[in-house]
Amino acid sequence: MKHLLHILALLIVFATATTAWAQATKEVPERNQPSKFAIAKVDFDHVKEVISNPKNAYYYPKLMKAYYDKRDTTMSIEAWRNFYYGYTFQEDYNPFRESIYSNKVEELYYKQPHSRAECDTIEHYAQLSLNDNMFDMNQMNFYIYVLKEKKKHASAAMLQHRLDRLIAAIMSSGRGTKEEPWVVISPEHEYNIINFLGFVATDHETLDGDIDYIKVQPVAGKSTEGFYFDISRMMQIARLKFPDI
Known about the structure:
51% helix, 11 helices, globular
């Protein structure tokens, strides 16, 4: 039960954090949209097979090396898909992972403009947070913002590319519909995708089959009322690691 309460608390935090995400996104208006990609259902058995094979191009240590060591900007969407979904097979994967550093300077995120010292502080904690949780898209977005504020455009572009590829990998897993939901490995990523698309979440509902439905505020010219997310893999691991969930 305590883990269930923790999850509910996290969902509230993620929902309220969208304001900060939206604010930071406004400060990065020239962000690149992910290029076109094919929609393909996630086959976790296949993911496990390829990331566990040292001879495969998607062997997980190779993907980690490309991500951290080479700062490789040539990774395909398929490589990113295996990197993202393959993380669920790693020992330290926790579907509700939250870095102890992610909220250290939360108040600064809402302040405008930022001084150089404040940018240094945000950059410091964003880097620490990403070292602890490499798929924290909120921290990636804040990091991009401060890098641009500090005129570190090459580093900002590299991180922006990384964020865009991560978003594309998730969006390639479906269409956000009930029939083809997007597959996520963290509840935070549901809200990140929604905000990336220009919507604001208003309500959350978990349906049968470990499907989350996130309602959104109406947007002029769009008929979308909400989006669907497949959290089955995430919850499978959560039930193994937190039996009292």
